[in-house]
Amino acid sequence: MSDRDSTTLTAPGVEVIEESGVETGAAAPRRMMLNMGPQHPSTHGVLRLQLELDGEIIVSCRPDIGYLHTGIEKQCEALTWQQAVTLTDRVDYLAPLSNNLCYCLAVEKLLGLEIPAHAQWMRVMLTELTRLNSHLVWLGTHAIDIGAMSVFLYCFREREEILRIFEMFSGQRMMTSYFRIGGLALAAPRGWQHRVRTLMDIFPSRIDEYEDLLTNNRIWMGRTKGVGRISLEDMLDLGVTGPMLRAAGLSWDTRKTHPYSSYEQFDFEVPTRTENDVYARYQVRIEEMRQSVRIVRQALEGMPSGPFQAAAPHVVLPEREKMKTQMEALIYHFKIVTEGFSVPEGEVYQVIESPRGELGYYVVSDGTSKAYRVHIHGPSFGNLQAVPTMVRNTPIADVIASMGSMDFVLGDTDR
Amino acid sequence: MLPEQWKELWKEFPVVAALESFDSAAIATGKYDRGELTLEIAPDRIVSICGYLKAGQAFVRLSGVTAVDRYPAEPRFEVVYHLHCLERSERLRLKCRLQTGAPIESVTGVWRSADWYEREVFDLFGIRFLNHPDLRRIMLPEEWEGHPLRKDYPVMGYK
């Protein structure tokens, strides 16, 4: 073994496996184990991939997750129903409102609550802004991983404005907890229409800007076209959902197939592609952003007026004024704040379309003021499971592009 | 065997009727609540039932596997499977009740996605899945003691 070989062997995280009988022939194949992560920047969080390499080609891949496991499901059993909303924000920190929505819908289904039209539309509008927010972070970081640095700056410029809108509504930029069981946390702030409309007016041209930078960029096409292929059957079998499936030609979107929160009243399309590679997934998400803008515009134009919370005094906190004049309101307030409200016995599996795919909340109640069990099925968990199949027999340089196209969030995976 | 009052429901849910004719002894009971269909399956039949539902009833996706701990009641655990049929936009929940310490057959042979889902249940509930290709902890470190989502595991505290 030459000196040069032995120095490569001592590099951190690299381990050379000598195959049996390797000493008999100088040209015998050698496999290398490479640890990618858990601190690798392209893993967007802490994911570790154990790659077995034959030269530059990946022979096998073993993902190691759990670094961000925070026991949110266990915590949900310890907090009251309404308190647990704040935990759902922290599941998928790029799409907190989607998680708020899914949890609230599940509990509202158990309670049998009717949510007023205004609150439903507001929820649709804000989850679509969340989708824009999430896709912008995805696009910026995906491009930076592949080497197109400037896209990131453009994406975060618009994302900043979306976060400011969230802050305007809820007082928080990221962990909004704006959707509550029974409606919204607060009435919409004065002047929100102007703020959202201004952003929506410029947004289509901003998407054009991103496309100018990437869509016909030869380097971008070279790095993404034909990369990260995995068959539709494999994806369905491995639990992949969302834009990944739509880039493989399957037009399935929970917003269309099982409309929730009045999505059936909105006019939008489900973009699909058939190329089934990283580039197609990029195109699908870009088109999804345009469709989200369409939905937000419709919500702006047709926003129904009315209350932002359900008429359910045992669930929703009373108005401050009523508490000062009505005994009943004071009693309800006391009860909700001290022990919380109880939810009828039962179980519900609520599914929504999060920016990453199918997000499911399985909520079990035993009739008390705390959840008996909350299971969160994050889309990233299913998507990540397909990584070994996707990267097998591909060059190591394409792993970054392939993983980026999955748009996973480790908080969502590990919970 | 399905209870008598379920006879009417068969007509509404072809999948229930089909399952009944496939293996009538496998269905312990079931319910239709808040628009969601739940069937309770005998634990030893879960693989054959799932295999049939995927091949014969187009439930191509396994949307998730999880569990509920009914401590201190026995049978203690409910293993819950959420199935999804894309063709008919239909969802179905299967449930198996397990005694403390009892294992269940893995459905990884039917849907590969069950691999991680079952590992998660194994890790957090301590339910063993037989014939699982790679049954290790997935969220917690290998040397972790206990299974946090069990009801007798404290929410707070060290040891």
Structural class of chain A: alpha+beta
The overall pLDDT average of chain A reads 87
Briefly note the structural class of the backbone of chain B.
alpha/beta
Major sheet description of chain A: 4 strands, antiparallel
The best one-word shape of chain A is globular
Shape of chain B: globular
Biggest sheet strand order of chain A reads: 1-2-3-4
Helix content of chain B: 10-25%
Low-confidence stretches of chain A: 1-12, 18-25
The unreliable regions of chain B are none
Number of helices of chain B: 4
> Rg of chain B to the nearest angstrom?
16 Å
Radius of gyration of chain A (Å): 24 Å
Distance between the termini of chain B: 45 Å
Q: What strand line-up does the widest sheet of chain B have?
A: 1-2-5-4-3
Q: Largest interface, with Cβ-Cβ < 8 Å?
A: A-B, 37 and 34 residues
Q: What's the count of strands of chain B?
A: 7
Q: State the helix count of chain A.
A: 18
Characterize the quaternary organization of these chains.
heterodimer
Q: How much of the sequence of chain B is in beta strands?
A: 25-35%
Structure description:
With 415 residues, chain A is of the alpha+beta class. Chain A is 47% helix and 13% strand. Chain A contains 18 helices and 9 strands. In chain A, a hairpin with a 2-residue loop joins strand 3 (48-54) and strand 4 (57-64). In chain A, helix 5 runs antiparallel to helix 12 and helix 7 (192-214) packs antiparallel against helix 12. Chain A is globular and about 80 Å long. In chain A, 48% of the residues are buried. Chain B is of the alpha/beta class and 159 residues long. In chain B, 25% of the residues lie in helices and 28% in strands. The model of chain B has no long low-confidence stretch (mean pLDDT 86).
Write the layout of secondary structure elements.
The complex is a heterodimer of chains A (415) and B (159).
Chain A: H1 3-9, E1 14-17, E2 31-36, E3 48-54, E4 57-64, H2 72-76, H3 85-89, H4 96-111, H5 117-146, H6 149-170, E5 179-180, E6 183-184, H7 192-214, H8 218-224, H9 232-238, H10 243-246, H11 254-257, H12 278-302, H13 320-325, H14 327-338, E7 346-354, E8 357-365, E9 373-377, H15 379-384, H16 387-391, H17 397-404, H18 410-414
Antiparallel strand pairs in A: 1-2, 2-3, 3-4, 5-6, 7-8, 8-9
Helix pairs in contact in A: 4-5, 5-6, 5-12, 6-7, 7-12
Chain B: H1 7-12, H2 14-22, E1 27-33, E2 36-41, H3 46-57, E3 61-69, E4 77-85, E5 90-98, E6 104-105, H4 114-125, E7 129-130
